[in-house]
Design a protein that fits this description.
heterodimer, A: 477 residues, alpha/beta, D-Maltodextrin-Binding Protein, domain 2, 2 domains, 25 helices, globular, disordered N terminus, B: MetI-like fold, two-stranded antiparallel ribbon, 13 helices, 73% helix
């Protein structure tokens, strides 16, 4: 019955704990040595900037360590944290008013970057400015797919944000149960159930059904899903859609990676998309019945409570799960493959600078961006006891202490997913939803129509047809 | 002396009001500063032809009738029971009023927790008793019943409190006379008590009706309008249009239709009240 409140509770005592992890002085030295002179870091001293962010683990860790940034730069950062929906409203209204109530913006690629990229500063201006501290190890150090998906829009020249967090959907399963029943499952199902590169969604279905048939006393069902009529349902379905070779728009991977203002006609009535919809409907029939009322937190809570044996879930839940009774009993793998590939939906975000901010505040904001996404700060986030996500830079994964943390026991539980993640972020594995200005409306159509399908009100064919008609109307195709 | 205050009041109510009317005839863009592009009656045409809006109004109507109806009946019964108590009524009233002091968002969170199919107490009780073994918030019919009952749980005490206040105005001498004439409780209720509190019942009805039209938080927290749009009442739809899609011109048009509906309901109740007053 434990809920995911650990971070919330610890947040209040975060400042002291965070500072004790990495003293302000040592961080300052590391950054100064790795980037530029002290003068460059002090150029906006005395400035106060506002950072608006979703209430995510990386921001919790950043908030706990702000004192070190303030000592390094003399800049005061006020952080406002809230749910993503509320954040998008505030940012949109800020842009609408032509103001800069917030100087640093947590710019979700789909809800902020795509519709409002013109309101963000092109960061090349600072990257190419000799007077500014360089981005440590260059922007090439960011995982390439994340840099493009989180930071760019329409072309590979402009860069609006630096990758800040990177939740990605993977296959999280009860390794203890899979090992215990491995032989029995292999005998009953005719294949090795242990997740591997060759495991398919059809096999995932069979494993789910095997558990749901009462073959393991530890769990009631095989699989659980985040299939509430909400964004989570679109995320859950997208993994299957892409795996089966379907997509929302033509040239989908490109539309997801760079985004577009003109995505063209919706492709949800393709044979591959229809097949994906049929499979997803069947999969949910053998899933835990609670799935249709769970978002990502709900399904993680139920998994933690031992309701089912596996789930597609955001990898950053590993931290919470590894702090629960399930510690050491969980396995992580890329999601199963379909006829086309394995697809692991990426849900990362970058941080950018409000173009309406004054020149002085933009400079201060840039210093904050460099610091917040630096390898040192990401390592600090990994070690933080108050939050911390997973790094968006390759160099952090290459650090010996981080590599060592990818096997238990570890004090960086999110790193238990590291091998899986480095696979999931490869071009052939990453799943990217369309980066278009009308995404919120399109997203709503997708999860609403899917919800009707799961409620038995529409067939997969009717669902995809209806979604296509509505989406075409929204994007003007 | 009142002019500055009146002027200020007019400024903060009329300016937004007329702005919203103007917005409803425009496409509104937020990028690069607020910009209006005149679109004539396009938004209004959408309001009256959009099947999603029609569906949301229908769901709202069901929700409105169910919540207000149940709250009025149960609230009146509760008030009559408490009024009939000779001892301990103050404690009972205090306990009864607790739900309405809880923020609707918290009621939603509590409801979601209690109805969760994996660890919810109510879900477990219903399942064990054999009354319902499905996913309450994840199934089309039961989700609607659940959000209606959450609202009823929270706001019935308000109706009870208002009716209880009204009951103190029932003439005791008339009740005693009826009793001496051998009137049964049902007869007293029907011919003396209810007619005496009819005005206060109308006031309670008006207050709850106004609230029910703009009901939002519990559904937003528990079902977000789902499953299959089965709980997507018009305020949830309006929220999506305004604050998720930022289609502010269309949202203004939808918002104005809600306002007109509220005014119509309020006017109807006010007329009824006046008629009652004249009759009495």
């Amino acid at each position: 019955m434990t809920q995911f409140k650990r971070r919330d509770i610890l947040k209040g005592i975060g400042g002291l704990a965070g500072l004790s992890l990495m003293g302000a002085g040592s961080l300052r030295t590391a950054l100064a040595q790795g980037m530029a002179s002290d003068e460059a870091w002090k150029q906006a001293s005395g400035t106060t900037i506002q950072f608006i962010s979703e209430n995510t683990p990386p921001t919790t860790a950043i908030a706990a360590n702000l004192a070190s940034f303030q000592e390094l730069t003399g800049i005061t950062v006020n952080i406002t944290e809230m749910q993503l929906g509320a954040l998008v409203q505030k940012v949109a209204l800020d842009f609408g008013a032509g103001r800069s109530s917030f100087d640093v913006i947590y710019a979700d690629p789909y809800q902020v970057l795509a519709p409002y990229h013109r309101g963000l500063v092109d960061l090349n201006r600072f990257i190419n400015d000799d007077q500014q501290p360089v981005v440590p190890k260059g922007i090439e150090d960011f995982i390439p797919t994340q840099l493009a998906a989180a930071g760019r829009f329409e072309d590979r020249e402009s860069l609006y944000t630096l990758p800040y967090d990177c939740p990605t959907m993977i296959w999280i399963y009860r390794r203890d149960l899979f090992e215990k029943y491995r032989d029995q499952m292999r005998q009953d199902l005719g294949f090795d159930p242990m997740p591997s590169d060759s495991t398919t969604w059809e096999q995932y279905y069979q494993i789910a059904e095997w558990f749901s048939n009462g073959n393991a006393s530890e769990v009631k069902y095989g699989t659980g899903h985040q299939a509430q009529q909400y964004d989570s349902l679109m995320c859950d379905f997208s993994n299957v859609l892409f795996a089966y070779g379907g997509d929302y728009f033509a040239n989908g991977q490109q539309v997801g990676l760079l985004g577009t203002d003109a995505p063209g006609a919706c492709q949800l009535t393709s044979d591959a998309a229809l097949e994906a919809a049929r499979f997803y409907q069947n999969l949910l029939k053998v899933a835990h019945p609670g799935s249709t009322s769970w978002d990502w937190t709900g399904v993680a809570n139920a998994f933690q409570n031992g309701e089912f044996a596996m789930m597609p879930e955001w990898h950053e839940f590993a931290g919470s799960l590894e702090s629960s009774d399930l510690q050491g009993k969980i396995g992580y793998a890329p999601l199963p493959k379909g006829p086309a590939r394995s697809s692991n939906l990426w849900g990362g975000t970058g941080i950018g600078i409000n173009a309406n901010a004054s020149a002085e505040k933009q400079k201060a904001a840039w210093l904050f961006l460099v610091w917040a996404t630096s390898p040192q700060t990401q390592l600090m986030g990994l070690k933080s006891t108050v939050g911390g996500g997973t790094p968006t830079r390759q160099s952090v994964y290459d650090m010996p202490e981080v590599k060592a943390a990818s096997t238990p026991p570890t004090d960086m539980p999110n790193m238990l997913t590291a091998d899986t993640m480095l696979t999931a972020w490869q071009d052939d594995y990453i799943g990217l939803r369309p980066k278009i200005a009308q995404w919120n409306e399109v997203d709503t159509v997708i999860f609403t129509e899917l919800s009707k399908m799961l409620a038995g009100q529409m067939s997969p064919e009717e669902t995809m047809q209806s979604a296509k008609q509505r989406i075409d109307r929204i994007v003007g195709a | 002396m009142m002019s500055p205050a009146l002027f200020l009041l007019a400024l903060i109510t009329l300016v937004p009001f007329f702005s919203i009317i103007w917005m409803s005839f425009n496409d509104v863009s937020l990028m690069g500063g607020l910009a209006f592009e005149f679109s004539g009656l396009d938004n209004w045409q959408r309001v009256f032809t959009d099947p999603d809006i029609r569906s949301s109004w229908l769901i709202s109507l069901v929700y409105f009738l169910a919540t207000v109806g149940l709250e009025m009946v149960i609230g009146t019964v509760m008030a009559l029971l408490v009024y009939s108590l000779t001892r301990g009524s103050n404690i009972i009233i205090s306990l009864l009023l607790i739900p309405m002091f809880i923020a609707p968002v918290i009621v939603g969170l509590l409801g979601r927790f209690m109805l969760d199919p994996s660890h919810g107490l109510y879900a477990w009780m219903l399942n064990e008793s054999g009354l319902f073994d499905g996913n309450i918030l994840g199934s089309v019919g039961s989700a609607m019943v659940a959000v209606i009952l959450m609202d009823v749980w929270e706001w019935t005490p308000l109706v009870a409190l208002i009716v209880l206040a009204g009951l103190t105005s029932v003439p005791e001498d008339v009740l005693e006379a009826a009793e001496m004439d051998g009137a049964r409780y049902g007869q007293k209720l029907l011919y003396i008590i209810l007619p005496s509190i009819s005005n206060i019942l109308l006031v309670a009805l008006l207050i709850r009706a106004m609230d029910a039209i703009r009901f939002f938080a519990i559904i937003f927290i528990t079902t977000n309008g789902g499953p299959a749009d089965s709980t997507k009442i018009i305020p949830i739809r309006l929220y999506d249009i305004a604050f998720r899609f930022f289609d502010l011109g269309y949202a203004a048009a939808v918002g104005i239709t809600m306002l007109v509906f509220s005014i119509m309901v309020a006017t109807a109740f006010t007329k009824l009240l006046k008629r009652q007053e004249k009759a009495s």
